[in-house]
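Pasting two entries for a bug report.
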Amino acid sequence: MVDTVIHLVRHGEVHNPDRILYGRLPGYRLSERGEKMAELVANHLASRDITAVTASPLLRAQQTAAPIAQRHGLGVGTDDRIIESTNHFEGLRVGHGEGRLTNPRHWPHFRNPFTPSWGEPYREQVARVRAAVRDAKNTNEGHEAVLVLHQLPIWVTRLAAEGRPLFHDPRRRQCGLCSVTSLVFRGDHLDHVEYAEPAAELYSGAVDATGGKLT
């Protein structure tokens, strides 16, 4: 049996001065710090046997993927299946103004936190990311491939891979900016999951997807 590794890379910090939940909104690019994060993760993966780099269609993922692909003389493919999850609060600053959780118009979206009812169901995210992983594995058998995507789809895919419940506390996700969650397959069997944070030195003061400081 041969080993095949699929690296799920989260994009870097995004330029988001209004600190809104940008979700699938177009045009959100990496910040200067995010660009440096992308270089660090590219350096981290430079010595690996990577034969394909694919990204979500969103700009921040494409920008993160570019230096990774460049290190290996590859182009960046695009896969809609690894796009960010949908969210009722997209375009709002959560907890402020129209995004205040006390706003009655949001209440129907809190009816089921296990699905969750405020966004794309966890199971649907896992299904589409798993399909992309499966195709990347089959195409790059015996080598390694990179998928650049987003925090929540990566995290619930890891939870599913490890047989853990998909419902979770978002504050406890192990999926930092430009982190690498590696699915290591032995033949057709997922042998184990590895995790690395090559951009951790830049986390101090960085802003996450909802506009909150990481540290």
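Entry 2 (this is the one that rendered wrong in the viewer):
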Amino acid sequence: MFGKKKESGTPVMHYEGIEGFATDYPCRIEVKGDVFEIRRIKPETTVTLPMNRIKSFSAMEEKNFMQKYHGTARTTGKSGINKYYLVVEYDKGMLAFWGTAKEYKQFIALQYATNTAAPSHIEL
């Protein structure tokens, strides 16, 4: 009754891809119908990406993400906590978010549950 309202979506840290969102900035991601929604926390800003523009969701461990997208298999964590990345490839670029093992399960579920057929027309 007096508890804190549970927020919807998966809590993640923005890594790269959205101008105006700093690296390691907390946000929540969620598929809402036909859009992928990213909500930045304090100051709250909402970014939406239509699902028909998304080519793929990929869940991967940090070393694999760093090797594929940054050319080196280094890790950025200092506390010994493993990071896992969700990469959202869409028609005009890529978004990357990271989380812990708890969020990784949700990244994998999103990767396999979301039918992201390639669009028949891409506007640049």
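Dev reply: Rendering is fixed now. As a check, the viewer should reflect this: The chain is about 20% helix and 40% strand.
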